[in-house]
Amino acid sequence: MPVAVLCSLFPTECGDSQRSESTTTTNRSSPTPPPNSRTTDSQRPTDTEANTREEPTRTDDERTDGARETDGTRTTKTSESQKPTTPSFDESYDITGLAGSAEMMTPNLMLIPTPMFVIGTNVTLGWKYSNATLRPPKKISICGKFPKDSKKSKDPAALCDWDIAVNISGTLRKYTWDTITKGAPGIAFSEDKGYLLYLYDSDFGVNNYMPGAGRITPSQFWFNMYNSRYGSTNQGVQKGYDPSAAHSLSVQIWIVATAVILGALGVGM
Questions:
Q1: What number of other Cβ atoms are within 10 A of residue 145's Cβ?
Q2: End-to-end CA distance of the chain
Q3: What whole-number distance in Å separates Cα of residue 161 and Cα of residue 198?
């Protein structure tokens, strides 16, 4: 029997049935509401997490020296305080650079090419480095050589017979040589000419005349030694001695004596 006929005969049951079907249809077609999407405070990202996502973490190298990597190439930003202050030398400098030298200032070899030192006294030695000495020595040494004719050298082929100073600081520009304590062991100095003194870079030795560009080559000079008859100065003159006064007194005595003799003889002057 058609539904319409049944609904006309039994309106009460038909209404309930239609409402039930309508409810079922509505329940089937109505989508399930989504769960509550409102974010709680615990689900919100913290400030630390937000900052982490917004700014990538830098490496230790980037924080310390400003290094960055772009397209696989690392570039470093150097601050002013990190720039080298010592002179740098390329490979060509070792080939074309000039050697340095130590120039003696005391004694002044320009004024006295062959100075004379008194045996048994202190001798002051002073020097400076030339402008070409861009690699000054860290340590220097000084030695001496007996005259060739003195026959005092134990090894005539050796450049040095005794040490005056060994491995003293390269920053020094002056040294006092005690001729009593700094001599050849068991061999006394004698009055003679033709002594030699050497000053050189301890790291390269007295025999090395090619230490490299910017380094000093061994320096040398001739000197003579003698015994002072007065025991005072390097000039061999006794302190307080006035030779002109002694000479004047003797001349005056001679003149007076001559006048007396000639007067006695009746000879006028």
A1: 23
A2: 196
A3: 11
Tokens at residue 88, please? 């740098």
The dihedral sign for the CA sequence 131, 137, 139, 140: negative
Q: What is the largest CA-CA distance in the chain?
A: 206
**Residue 66: pLDDT band by 50, 70, 90 thresholds?**
very low
Nearest Cα to 116, choosing from 194, 38, 43? 194
d(CA 211, CA 254): 67
pTM for the predicted model, two decimal places: 0.55
Strands 174-178 and 219-226: unpaired
| Amino acid in the structure at residue 191 | E
CA-based torsion, 258, 260, 262, 268: positive or negative: positive
Kindly tell me the sign of the dihedral angle through the C-alpha atoms of 170, 171, 175, 181.
negative
What confidence score (pLDDT) does residue 147 get? 96
Q: Residue 175 burial (CB < 10 Å; 0-12/13-18/19+)?
A: middle
Tokens of 221: 């000079």
Sign of the CA dihedral 257, 262, 266, 269?
negative
Nearest CA-CA partner of 207 in 158, 139, 137 = 158
Dihedral Cα 237, 240, 246, 248, nearest 10 deg: 110
Within 13 Å, how many C-alpha atoms sit on residue 161's CB side? Answer: 23
